[in-house]
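Put briefly, the fold is written as integer tokens. One such record reads:
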Amino acid sequence: MRSVLSFIILPAIICLLFVNPGSGQTGGGTGLAFLKVGVGGRAGGMGEAFTAVADDATATFWNPAGLSYVPKTQLAFTHTEWIQDISSEFVAFAFPALKGSVGLSIYSNNVGGIERRVQPSEEPLGTVDANDIAFGVSYGHAFSSRLSGGITIKYLYEKIFIESAAGFAADFGLSLRPFENDLTVAITAQNLGSMGTLKDESIDLPTTVRVGASYRLPLPSLEGDLLLAADAVNVRDTDLRGNLGAELQLQRLFAFRFGYQTGFDDKSVGGGLGVLFKKYRLDYGFASFGSNLGDTHRISIGLEL
């Protein structure tokens, strides 16, 4: 127990208290921007206010401490249709082990049809693709009925045309249920690490700190509950943002979600739906963009094995 405590809690506290997402910021911003985009139809429908909500296999992305709430083996798959022909896939596998839960995840992102030019011209020389991928190994452990901690170690790879770079990063998370009710508070530090150079250009990771809270209100008359959540998000190359989300679950079968995000010029309102049936769940979430950019769609499937 002491070794696990030292391995997770102490590094997490140090990182969460002293990491400054804005430190080292350069005018060029950060690379691997897909790491800033949340996964899961449920989280997408709740405006990505999910730091204190994640309690399934997607906790490998949101907050590895949430893996401690995974009671059985789970598999999750998410497909995201982003703006401007950008798409991503996320697969996670979580299972109880080592007095906690272990998670394995793959997050890939593709941007196709990038016009290639070596000098200003009306016609491009052709098109190229950009591909990013993150392989993660996560562990979550409950130190008590109220406090959980977790860590994720990630291998990162980015390729644009014929140039590529690789690196490693870590996420740390804590989840606390301070009272004898359904209030949860959580904090994570994500993407702490470094990347190699891409064609002699350094790449800064999108170091992120998320602080969140959630509260579940039982609704016995509807055979369901109302979940309210809020996150404050500070990413290395952006200003502080706020995410708000709500989920109304009825008869333990249907879920209706609403989300709102602040700090974006073009994105604010979103929503989604969910269907739960025995060991299966299907979730859909969307976010609306202005400036004729279109909408973002996330669809995910969860399975308890």
Notes: The first strand starts at residue 74 and ends at 81. Confidence is low (pLDDT under 50) at residues 1-10, 23-28.
